[in-house]
Structure formats: structure tokens, C-alpha cells
Amino acid sequence: MRKMIYNLTKLPEPEICFRFGQSMEDPRDGLFLFGPLDEKRPYGVRYGLIGTRDGIARFKEWVSAVQKPIIGSGRAGWPFFPGFEAVFRVPISSEPYIERIIDQSALSRAVHLEDAYQRVYEAVDLYYTKITAARIEEEDLVDLWFVIVPDMVYDLCRPKSRVPPARRVQPDRKVTPELVRRLHQQRPLFDAEEEYETAKAYEYEVDFRNQLKARLLEHKIVTQVIRESTLLGNYNRMNVDSANDMRSSIAWNLTTATFYKAGGRPWKLASVREGVCYVGLVFKIQRQPGYSQNACCAAQMFLDSGDGLVFKSAVGPWYNENTGQFHLKRKDAKELITRVLRAYEEYRGEPPKEIFIHGKVRFDDEEWAGFQEATTGKTKIVGVRIRDFWDLKVFRDSSYPLLRGMAYIRDDRTAYLWTRGFIPRLQTYPGREVPNPLLIDVCKGDADIRVVLQDIMGLTKLNYNACIYGDGLPVTLRFADRVGEILTAAPISGDSPLPFRHYI
């Protein structure tokens, strides 16, 4: 029986650890004062660069700009950017180690194809073939590739994009849905080979970014996709201070993601419970033509050190149309967590003491039995449901909303946690509406609800894809949909776990 508590409390803001073991609340303060947690090699970030001539020129201008400080208005929440080397203690050159140019006219033709599948596939192919060819041709490998795309790619190569009728380009070969289904059933040997190559486009998701990252997974190539307009900065409607604030924010976010994707950890949690592993479950329905309405399942594992791995599980009938929920079968649940445990043991030399599995819905008895079979005698396991909750609003007599870190503990297994709210350190609330809490429910296993809440607060500080004070969701769920979209964006071979930086 649950013990009713009804307690409103303020959780301490988790601190994050930087170089020399120094800890602070704000990652921007810590990086500027002490430097990143990991020391990179002295030559700095080695990167490849691919884009149109205009895109490459704009990126080089941007890299030159972030070598120096970017000073904005000094308003709360908008700290100035000191410069790449001043922040990360390593250089980054405006000249890439490898450079590849995309033909503007070929890209324009591809993104205006009438058929959405062929449109995105051919646009991705222009980048994919040059990146993979460079990996073979060049002796020096790079840490990551910067993929610079014109805004027309962003506008026309997403799931709901439509090309204006006057600008549509007809493909060289049309493929009917019937042909796609037939070619999926049996690959032709001779006469229909060209048709098969054309029909391959229908095996991939209609999303440029997701498809490119998915196709590069087997080559273990890390990318940072950037729109040209992000680098150019269209600030015509802003005053000078606002424009510099935006440039500073973009510089913090992109350079932090760059350092992380190049193999360095910017920071980690300062106060961690030794031997604890956090797992976020990812489900995504496959919707490409020729496939049944199966779902892909994966697990994102995050260690107390901040490192993360993604495990791809089998594709199966995990989705229940009646409940709108995803659940694994017992055998598959056991296999997935067994792989997580194996990877942890290889990394640490011993199994974790505790595993916290985060999901958006309650775990059913069958899949939980599979999780328990994998961990029995080795590790304590706890299942936690985390979801945004819209039905509870708390107001305070102030110009600002409730503080970040406030928690309303309903009983010993359920609580509402405000991971968004007023931040005293910044003296502002980085939002526009009254913040909603997260509903936290320890639905399986046993754990102190306060410990669970504090862990979730800590996991909101591990979004290395941006340099912000704190996120609204723990990292176990923040990128769940994005990882699922990449895993279902292409037919991916192999199931070896890859570091999290390949997916963000």
C-alpha cells in the first residue's frame, strides 16, 4: 500500500564536474573557468566539411568568428562566448582536414523531384557517397563531419514537405507501389536491376537528417548537420544586442556539440551514485512501404560518468493499437537488458549495482519478467515512468513561475517534478508559458522517490547537444524519439552498440 505524503519540496540543483575536479551549476561558467572534463589531443578537432560552395564559405567564416569572443547584451541567461580555444582548451582550424563540394545544380534538381522518397534519397546520396568515398581515399581519419545544407534541403526534404507544382521535377524512372511490393518480396537477378535500385529509395524514411545519419551508422561516421541560415544569421529584425545574444547562444551550443562528437566529454555529474546505470527505452513504428506495421525497439544506456550507448533490439509487433502503447515480449526484454549488462561489465569490469529503466508508459508484467530474468542475482532493477503532465498548474505570487527543482511528492512512489522553471542562478525563466511538471511514477521495483527525483534532475544536465543550464527532460527520454527515428530511417545491418554521439 502506498504511503500518502503530500509534500512540496525544493531539490538541490545538481552540480556538474569539469577539469581539475571543479564543480559548478552552469556548464558555461564551468567550461570558461576550468575547461572541459576530458583533455583532447593537442592538435584539436579534426573535421571533414561537406556542402555547397556557399555553405562551405559560410562555415569557414563562422569558425573564424568563434575563434574570438562574441559579446552580447550581458542580460541574464545570455552569457558571452569567450572563443573556442578559450572554452575547450584546444584549437579548431577554419580549414578542414577533408573538404568535399556538393554540386549546387545537382542538389537543386534532387530536392525538387516530385516523388518524396526519391527526392530525399537522391539528396542524401549526394552527401553520403562523397563522405564514404573520402573515408576510403583519405589516410587521415577525422573526428566528425560537418554537413552544411542549404535551407531548400530543410524545406523540401522532411516528411510533410511538398514541392510547389511549378518547380516539380519528374524522376528519370517512376516506380509504382505495386513494383515496390514485388521487389521487396524477391530481388530480381537481371532485367529489373535498375528498377530495384530505384525502388531502394522506398526503404528509407523521408527525412534528410535521419536518413543520412542512419546510412552512415554502419561506417561509424559521426556528423553534425547545420543549416546554412544558422551560420549566416538572419538578424534583420533584431537589434544589435539581440543579434549578438543569438550568435553567442549558437556558438555555445554548436561548439559544445562539436567537442562531444569529436570524442571529448564536456562535463559529467559531480555527485553520482557509484555503479548506477540508467536506461531509456525507445520504440518507433516502421512505416516504409513494403513493411508491416512493426516497431523497432532500442535501449539508450547512460552511465554515471555521462557516457552513453545505444542498443538496437529486434523489430517486432510491439505496438498495441487498442492501448496505443509499446511493450516487449518476455524473451526480447530479457535479451535487450542482457546486452546492456554485458556492455556495462565490459566497460567497468563488474555488473552495475542498480539499473533504472525509464519509459513513457508503465511496464507490463510480461516485459518486466524478462527484465528481471536478465538481472536476477546481479543487479537491482527499478522501472520508472516519466511523462509530461498537463493537468497540474502551480502558481506563485511573483512575476516569475515556480522554481526549477520543485517537487510535489504525492506518495512514496509518485511525484510531480518541475524541471522547467525560474532559475535563481540566471535570475530568469527561460520559457514563455507557465511550466508543466513531469509525472514521475516508480511503477516497478523499489526505490526512494526522493533519490529517483534527484537522479532525474541530474540527467537533465547531460544534454551534450546543447550548452544550457538544464533541460526539461532527462537525457534518457530527451532523445528517445530522435534515436528511434534514425534506427527506423533505413535498413540498418548489425546490432553492435554505438556511442550516443552517432545519433544526435
- From the alpha carbons, calculate the radius of gyration and give it in angstroms: 24 Å
* Tally of structural domains: 2
Shape: globular
Mean pLDDT: 87
What does this structure look like?
- The chain is α/β, with parallel strands linked by helices.
- It has 2 domains: 4-15 and 265-502, 2-Layer Sandwich (Nucleotidyltransferase, domain 5), CATH 3.30.420.10; 44-71 and 89-261, no CATH class.
- It has 16 helices and 19 strands.
- It has helices spanning 27-34, 53-65, 84-88, 104-111, 116-137, 151-156, 177-185, 193-199, 208-216, 228-232, 240-261, 330-348, 365-375, 449-459, 475-478, 480-487, and strands at residues 4-10, 16-17, 23-24, 47-51, 98-101, 144-149, 223-227, 268-269, 276-285, 295-303, 308-316, 319-320, 325-326, 354-359, 380-388, 406-411, 414-417, 438-444, 498-499.
- The strands form 4 sheets. A 10-stranded mixed beta sheet has the order 1-16-17-18-15-14-9-10-11-19, sandwiched between helices.
- Helix 5 (116-137) runs parallel beside helix 9 (208-216) and helix 12 (330-348) packs parallel to helix 13.
- The longest helix has 22 residues, at 116-137.
Short description:
With 504 residues, the protein is of the alpha/beta class.
Name the descriptors.
504 residues; alpha/beta; Nucleotidyltransferase, domain 5; 2 domains; four-stranded parallel β-sheet; 19 strands; globular
Element layout with pairings:
Blueprint: E1 4-10, E2 16-17, E3 23-24, H1 27-34, E4 47-51, H2 53-65, H3 84-88, E5 98-101, H4 104-111, H5 116-137, E6 144-149, H6 151-156, H7 177-185, H8 193-199, H9 208-216, E7 223-227, H10 228-232, H11 240-261, E8 268-269, E9 276-285, E10 295-303, E11 308-316, E12 319-320, E13 325-326, H12 330-348, E14 354-359, H13 365-375, E15 380-388, E16 406-411, E17 414-417, E18 438-444, H14 449-459, H15 475-478, H16 480-487, E19 498-499
Parallel strand pairs: 4-5, 4-6, 6-7, 9-14, 14-15
Antiparallel strand pairs: 1-16, 2-3, 2-8, 9-10, 10-11, 11-19, 12-13, 15-18, 16-17, 17-18
